[in-house]
Amino acid sequence: MRIAGIIPARWASTRFPGKPLALIDGKSMIRRVYERALLCSALQSVIVATDDQRIAIEVQSFGGNFIMTRPDHPSGTDRCLEALKRCGEEFDAVVNIQGDEPYVNPEHIRLLADLISRPGSQLATLVCPIDDSASLFNPNVVKAVLGKQGNALYFSRQPVPYLRGLDPELWLKEHVFYRHLGMYAYTADALRAIARLEVSPLEKAESLEQLRWLEHGFTIAVAIADGASPGVDTPEDVDKLRNFFEKRP
Q: What is the rounded average pLDDT for all residues in the chain?
């Protein structure tokens, strides 16, 4: 199976305009993401899908591949589809790699590539166990519920499942809760299909795109990863990532 890693990278950001060009330990964030993606041998190509010439020039400067896409895409999924259509190559599947995780784990990309390569796969994503109450009850940390077959049953901003009759302070001791990691893989056919779907009621309620896919009957395979890669949402987050590998045990 031929798999492309596509990195959506747009210029506009409410909290951090021009985020892909933020310097992290001497390299732009988009370069950091690109170079980490290249470490995954499961990908046959890595492509930046951008809407801004400044990002394209940066990618070109370090010898990366890029495709210019429309600026009005509502999500990274839609940007991935346009890039897939315009790349000039045939791919069986796409891994959508977050452009704001400069130290993305190549092993996470491989996990997704393995999942999407399985017969019958449509969509795939990652989760990791939640180990602190602050994350469990934080609506910005998306929770996932898994079925026995390793597929996603539901995603929510609320802690799910609700442990009835138990003090919330004890929930993590009694049940394994999962945090959703926002990286996806899609077969080419599934990517084309989900891009045509109308926004669904569950998606509107939780503001989570993946609920649209579940609500329309798609199956999302899930792999359990060993933890989340640090992301960048604000300029302050860049400072936290200085000397990233030196700080890790």
A: 94
240 residue type, one letter: K
10: buried, middle or exposed (CB in 10 Å: 19+, 13-18, 0-12)?
A: buried
Asked whether the beta carbons of 6 and 97 are under 8 A apart, the reply is yes
pLDDT at position 161 is 96
**pLDDT at 247 > cutoff 70:** no
Contact status, residue 50 vs residue 82, Cβ threshold 8 Å: no
Percent of the chain whose predicted confidence (pLDDT) is above 90: 86
Q: Answer yes or no: are the C-beta atoms of 140 and 156 closer than 8 Å.
A: no
Are 52 and 69 a contacting pair, CB within 8 Å?
no
**Gap between the Cα atoms of 12 and 39, Å rounded:** 28
Q: What is the amino acid identity at position 232?
A: V
- 238 exposure class (CB count in 10 Å sphere: 0-12, 13-18, 19+): middle
Measured distance CA(114)–CA(133) in Å, rounded: 31
Q: Provide the token pair at 218.
A: 């798609």
Q: Are 181 and 227 in contact (CB under 8 A)?
A: no
- β-bridge mates for residue 222, sequence order: 125
User: What mean pLDDT is predicted for residues 183-207?
Assistant: 96
Which pair of structure tokens corresponds to residue 15?
């909290």
- Look-up of token digits 């996603």: 152
SS3 at position 57: helix
26: burial class by Cβ within 10 Å (0-12, 13-18, 19+)? exposed
What CATH number belongs to 3-227?
3.90.550.10
Q: Give percent of the chain above pLDDT 70.
A: 97
- The predicted model gives 192-220 an average pLDDT of 96
